[in-house]
Amino acid sequence: MRTPLVAAFLGLSLVACTGVIGDGGPGGDDDDVPGPDCGNSVVNAGETCDDGNNSSGDGCSAACSTEGSPAMSMTVDKPTVMTELMTETMLTVTVTSSGGFSGPVTLTGSAIDAQSAPITGWTVTFDNASVDVPANGTATAVATVKIPSENMGLAGTIKIDGASSIGAKTAQTAVTVLDQVSLPMTLVDGQCSYPPVTSFKLTTGSKLRIVNNAARNVTFHMQGADNQPETNLSHQDDPGTPAGGVYEQTLTSTSGAALWWCHDPQDNNQGRLITAVPAQ
Q: What is the pLDDT at residue 32?
């Protein structure tokens, strides 16, 4: 009678042992179990990455080990821009690493037309032309796109290239430019307050817009500059431009220059110069 009882007892023990040995405990394989610090955005001992979560498939596994090959990508916050002549536009560039990549990324910018030729006069500068990207993280820089007052082109692409130890990536923004220059005006203590620019060039066919941001009518005066032919830009008649209105003229002259200032309220400061240039 003792033999069958012993055999049964041994059989149950083997089954229990087999279950414990085979399933690796409630967490499965020890390699898939995250450490106590995994997911805290800090690469601790025993980790090759830590992206602040316990999810796999994003370059850093649920157990904080690197997934895939080192890689990076680049994006801009404005894939399209509508602007006008004599403006500056800010673009935020974001560089994202994956697969454990980290290190410096050098940024360069250019402006090209539809035939990939450089656009003269358009410039791209950066607040930081080299960013250090953390492993499986991001780094940002701000690119400033400057469009001149002259019509050098009304449509183009801003191309931003990022070079790193694992290769290069490119991000682009399509830019459309209105053929006009807008000058915002207002009154301070009853006198005209002018925009900071004191002189600029305007291309034949471009529009000049003086925007009245004051709370009353303002009349804008224009006349030919000394020792230069006059342009077709003309003095405005009273009662001038109403509050919130715009005084618009299209330049048809191919040469010459014009001075402009406030006629009402009276302002004898005539140092704001517009020089006409022919279209290219």
A: 62
Residue spans of the domains in the chain: they are: 2-32, 72-178, 180-277
The three-state secondary structure class of 274 is: strand
Residue recorded with tokens 């991001």: 138
Length of the chain: 280
For residues 147 and 81, what is the distance between their CA atoms, to the nearest angstrom? 12
Annotation: CATH topology of 180-277: Immunoglobulin-like (2.60.40)
Q: How far is CA 76 from the centre of its chain?
A: 5
Question: Which of 2.60.40.2310, 3.20.20.210, 3.30.565.10, 3.30.70.60 is the CATH number of 72-178?
Answer: 2.60.40.2310
As a whole number of angstroms, the distance between CA 221 and CA 237 comes to: 9
Peptide bond preceding 229: is omega within 30 degrees of 0, i.e. cis?
Answer: no
Task: With beta carbons less than 8 A apart as the criterion, state whether 100 and 85 touch.
Answer: no
Contact (CB, 8 A) for 185 and 222: no
pTM of the model: 0.77
Q: Which two tokens stand for residue 102?
A: 């980290």
Quickly tell me which residue has 């500068």 as its tokens. 125
Strands 207-212 and 246-250 turn out to be antiparallel
The enclosing H or E element of 220 equals strand 219-224
* C-alpha closest to that of 137 among 92, 99, 87, 192: 99
Phi, psi angles (nearest 5°) of residue 47: -115, 145
Spatial separation of the C-alpha atoms in residues 261 and 199, rounded to whole Å: 12
- Please tell me the predicted confidence (pLDDT) of residue 105: 98
Q: Kindly list the averaged pLDDT for each block of 10 residues, start to end, along the chain of length 280.
A: 45 43 43 80 87 81 85 97 98 94 97 97 98 95 98 98 97 98 94 92 98 95 85 93 97 95 82 91
CB burial readout 93-115, b (16+ within 10 A) else e:
bbbbbbbbbbeebebebbbbbee
Would the CATH topology of 72-178 be identical to that of 180-277? yes
